[in-house]
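Entry for zinc ion complex. Fields follow.
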Amino acid sequence: MSKSASAMVLHKFNEPLEQREFPLPDLNEGELLVKISASGVCGSDVHMWLGKDPRLRLPMILGHEGVGQIAKLRGERHNVHGVPLHEGDLIIWNRGVTCGRCYFCAVKRTPALCPNRWVYGIMTNCADPPYLRGCYAEYILLTSNTDILRISDLIPHSKFRTPNSEFRIPNSLIDPAILVSAGCSGATMAHAFDLHSPDVGDTVVVQGPGPLGIFAVAFAKARGASEIVVIGGTPSRLELCRKFGATLTLNRNETTVDERRQHIMDLTDGRGADVVIEATGSSEAVKEGVGLVRNGGCYLVTGFGNPEGKVELDCFADISRKNICLQGVWVSDTKHLLEAVRLVIDNAGVFSALAVDKFPLAQATKALEAMRDKKTLKGIIVSS
Ligand SMILES: [Zn+2]
Ligand SMILES: [Zn+2]
């Protein structure tokens, strides 16, 4: 193993990332050094790169969606299933690290809301040791309190395991690149479904056919929704949603708000959808989305990672008279990461569509540009 790691550093907003070498750290008890196999480029990475996130302290290494192999560990480390971890294991980890002791962690059991939560590749800085806290790098150092999932433990027996096999699944069975989206958009959508799940036979409407919306379609299908309607503006993305299980797609550039509403009402005997999921990050979508929810239904707002404007709602007609649940969704917990990874593994064939545009580490800036220019649905940085 070399003594240093290459990483792409964000040193100035809206400028190409700079390739730098960092020394590999000595490990403290319980820490893991992970060789990154694949790192997802999230929409919020583009936002950060452009200087629109006030939380950042430069210089830093972006990347909060990583999958990799354990290169080194110090002491005994276990995954969330209580299984000891070994060098060579392919793992994914909760991008957020929480304190476990505050009101939100310990009393309300909602660690996503922990005020002490910090995130790899977002609230981290590479000016000082141990430097390697983001995924746009050859290696990342994970703290002893980071929650770890081992991929081979998540592959169902019925699919790949033979009855008497020694349950060590070869890492090569699953392409790490298809797992990265589970780390952020997948886990966030699992959180939404944890807060409010459709019933079997329900009608679900998804606004926005990006990675979040695609996970919404896949979870809705897995939870037994009968009708899954996706509203979006890019035909190729809507087509992809149909592969994931959407039963109807509506192009917002070819239909009016009233026409789309009529489609949903026709599908539901005039009631409206049981669950509507906002996955656009656009305030305009919210007014329309609330109008599509049936009386007593739920509107899940998942797409806002940053302030994106306001919306006017009629408190009587839109909310109380309809008795709707208006549910915001903020990031995710380890439970949600686990559910998202399982969903991807169970549907690996279709999810491979989210792992098409791969970039070597040195071209991380190109991956950000492709995401910024909407030339790819998902950019993935892979180790060469
Ligand atoms: Zn993200
Ligand atoms: Zn906490």
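NOTE: The pocket of zinc ion (ligand 1) is lined by residues 42, 44, 64, 184 (CB under 6 Å).
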